[in-house]
Design brief:
Elements lengths: L2 H5 L1 E6 L2 E6 L2 E7 L2 E7 L10 E2 H18 L2 H16 L10 E2 L18 H18 L2 H9 L5 H4 L3 H16 L4 H20 L14 E2 L5 H12 L2 H20 L5 E2 L8 H18 L2 H15 L9 E2 L4 E2 L3 E2 L2 E2 L5 H18 L2 H5 L4 H8 L3
Antiparallel strand pairs: 1-2, 3-4, 5-6, 7-8, 9-10, 11-12
Helix pairs in contact: 2-3, 2-4, 2-13, 4-5, 4-7, 7-8, 7-9, 8-9, 9-10, 9-11, 10-11, 11-12, 11-13, 12-13
């Protein structure tokens, strides 16, 4: 699972330590020994940098998940290395910056996608720190979590994807059984953010209030609310997730997968699929209804070749995942985000496949016929 990400990892010295960074993109190159993947820097919005917190924090989360679930020693070791980068990108004021510009680790402090306090990388850093605190049991990660200034709810409520990541970050701390004061703080945060999601709901969980189109890329609000429903015992959260499945997730699967609901197919990638797999898996664990596990495994089928390109996108042995599908053709590039998101989906698949109820109970017949057409 970690061969590809390990090959994209490199270190630079800072403060007497070796900091492990992760290349953003990797492109295939033909050599006498066969195809190898060469890292390249990101430059989607001008020069961005050679590694970013957005990816490294998620890679750390993958490593922690693999260690916790599979006892994958390489995952634990890499996660600990990548967490050093998360710490390196936190400033004295507690805010996080996203990119480093070069191999020396110079932080990009004024980029369009890299400046102190950006919402996306802040939320992802907190998610990784919360998971590190829970899985590794080290107080230093909670201390960093609490040092970070949280964005106002009035700001995060306008982007429900970010709200979803923040919910997941706080849930990690809650699940670690922290001291009473921290538990009360985190529960209040989770409930407030979840209430924001419910206020923006319009038949299904949206990206922003009043916007019917949902970008499935990074659809974290779905797994976040499902996990919160289970942890807090909230029937209203659970009902919102059920409605989202019927009105958004099932139609998406029936359409043969989408980039944006209700009708945009171009641009599908691993980050469109993994949140669906995670949300359905979380809903299965909250309800014990095998139909949701069946739908999660169907959604995972995108990685196995049930997609518009009719191409297997992910190799769990190497951890390499093709970057996406355009015009019915799979990209040959294999960047960090794709490998990380595919790895997270693979861990859900393994967990569900070990569940007797998930394997043996058939899908709801109302959806099985249409979904079988995708195979």
């Amino acid at each position: 699972m970690f061969e590809h990400l390990a090959s994209m990892t490199w270190t630079f010295p800072a403060g007497g330590k070796e900091i492990a960074a992760l290349a953003v993109y990797a492109e295939p190159q033909e050599t006498a020994q066969g195809v190898i993947y060469r890292p390249r820097a990101a430059a989607e919005s001008g020069p961005e940098g050679v590694a970013c917190l957005d990816d490294v924090a998620r890679a750390a989360l993958l490593g922690l998940r693999a260690w916790e679930q599979e006892r994958d020693e390489q995952g634990r070791r890499l996660a600990q290395q990548w967490l050093g980068f998360v710490a390196y990108m936190q400033g004295e004021d507690g805010r996080f910056t996203n990119f480093i510009l070069d191999a020396a680790g110079q932080r990009n402090m004024r980029g369009q996608t890299s400046y102190p306090g950006g919402l996306w990388w802040t939320a992802r850093a907190l998610y990784a720190l919360g998971a590190a605190y829970r899985v590794l049991g080290e107080e230093r990660w909670l201390e960093r979590w609490q040092r970070c200034p949280l964005p106002p709810r009035a700001v995060t409520a306008s982007d429900e994807k970010i709200t979803g990541v923040l919910i997941l970050a706080a849930l990690e701390v809650l699940r670690a059984a922290p001291p009473a004061r921290v538990r009360q703080q985190m529960q209040a945060l989770v409930e407030g953010w979840c209430d924001d999601l419910l206020r923006g709901m319009d038949g299904y969980l949206c990206d922003m209030p009043g916007e019917r189109q949902v970008m499935l890329w990074g659809y974290h609000q779905f797994p976040a609310l499902a996990q919160a429903a289970a942890w807090l015992g909230r029937a209203d959260y659970l009902e919102a997730c059920r409605q989202t499945v019927e009105r958004l997730v099932v139609p998406t699967l029936e359409a043969g997968f989408l980039y944006a609901f209700p009708d945009v197919k171009e641009g599908q990638c691993a980050y469109c699929m993994t949140p669906l797999v995670q949300g359905l898996a979380a809903l299965y664990r909250a309800t014990h209804e095998a139909r949701y596990a069946g739908l999660a495994l169907r959604a995972f089928g995108w990685f196995e070749g049930r997609n518009d390109a009719h191409t297997r996108m992910y190799d769990p042995q190497t951890g390499r995942c093709l970057d996406g599908i355009t015009d019915g053709v799979a990209s040959r590039n294999c960047g960090a985000e794709s490998a990380i998101e595919a790895g997270l989906a693979e861990l859900e698949r393994r967990s569900l496949s070990r569940s007797p109820g998930a394997r043996q109970t058939p899908e709801n017949p109302e959806t099985s016929a249409s979904l079988n057409a995708l195979a």
